[in-house]
Amino acid sequence: xxxxxxxxxxxxxxxxxxxxxxxxxxxxxxxxxxxxxxxxxxxxxxxxxxxxxxxxxxxxxxxxxxxxxxxxxxxxxxxxxxxxxxxxxxxxxxxxxxxxxxxxxxxxxxxxxxxxxxxxxxxx
Length: 124
Description:
It is a single chain. By secondary structure, the chain is mainly beta. Helix content is 0%, strand content 52%. It is built from no helices and eleven strands. The chain has strands spanning 3-7, 10-13, 18-25, 32-39, 46-52, 58-60, 68-73, 78-83, 92-100, 113-114, 118-123. Strands 2, 4, 5, 6, 9, 10 and 11 form a seven-stranded mixed beta sheet that branches. Strands 1-3-8-7 form a four-stranded antiparallel beta sheet, with no helix packed on it. The model has no long low-confidence stretch (mean pLDDT 93).
């Protein structure tokens, strides 16, 4: 059974930084894809950053490229999202997600494990 627990959200002024964390509980191996998605009120959920734990595949939404960085600490089974130069439009509930990939090096379109979410609010 997989469980994802997010932490580190909060409120920050525009231009500031936050780091959110996702602790993974379950079978953690190199076939995992993990990532961050976000959903603002009244909007559809969108992928922010995802990557293949075994390497070779990292995705960033165009809106966050150059500002956000996804990383992992395998010793802690934890994935981070470092968010810099935050903008008010980054305000959303951020969700950690995971899925085991069936194709080496490639992340699936659908993720079947989700955390409870952590709120990020950026004020202007």
